[in-house]
Amino acid sequence: MDNKQIILVGAPMDSGKRRQGCRMGPDALRVAGLEQAIADLGHKVADWGDVDPDQVDLPQDSHLFSLPECIGWTRALSRTAEKAASEGTPIFMGGDHALSMGTVAGMAAHAQQLSRPLFVLWLDAHSDFHTPQSTDSGNLHGTPVAYFTGQSGFEAFPALPATIPTDRVGMIGLRSVDPAERTVLEQKSAMLADMRSIDEHGIKAPLMAFLDRVRAENGMLHVSLDVDFLDPSIAPAVGTTVPGGATEREAHLAMELLHESGLVCSLDLVELNPFLDERGRTAKLVVDLAASLLGRRIFDRPTRSF
Predict the structure, then answer these.
(1) What are 29-48's pLDDT values in tens digits?
(2) Is pLDDT of 202 > 70?
(3) Does the active-site annotation cover 126?
(4) Can 124 be counted among the known catalytic residues?
(5) Phi and psi at residue 110, to the nearest 5°
(6) What architecture is domain 5-300?
(7) Phi and psi for 57 in degrees, rounded to 5?
């Protein structure tokens, strides 16, 4: 990703779940110095500002939280992602994880135009493979992977320009997955690496195996980084904390390996809720991780004081 045009896209989406605060995520990442950190690595950076959702004339659903708003975000972000991908390497600053319904759809359309397969690396404590029918909470931030892999039940959402086959999805950091979700994902051959396997074998082995597949198929890679991939002791600013997440060193290693692969075409930074942060420490860590993915070496990291 050397000497790329990096395009920052704010996605202040707070419609995918009932607990509010993620709409402040894009500005928190800006304040934490994301643009400067990227520019310091020699990349050109353009901040396209924040996306506005399309207006959708649908009644609210009695079970699904903010369904019309989520559909509007999906439409707007898909369109923006496809445009940004044609001009550079987009980084989508969220916002809750429902935004990935739009960002992945747009990136899939872009990859299809290039006649290349799109793979998705899901760095998350959760698999987000519920459908609108299977979610108990009604929070749509638990459904994006089911949507962009073409599962049934999303008739109200925009038709996908290209679906992502489930075997092109790699999930690392899992530790809160409903049994029904896991059964279906295993049947559909998704690459699943939970924290138990990472404890036993490290984070490098599953990641490198997945990257080898992307490379072998001349694929493009979209990375979706949820703050709850990280252990809450180092990243408290998330409303869905699950103990036992990735350490700071494991997360940086993953980012460094992704950079060295040269396969990453786009990045989501999601579920940052600054209202829950401690003096900006989570936002700063997310900025540092993005910088590692874009080429910052371990010796180049700034010393942080909190």
Answers:
(1) 999 999 999 999 999 999 99
(2) yes
(3) yes
(4) yes
(5) -65, -45
(6) 3-Layer(aba) Sandwich (3.40)
(7) -90, 75
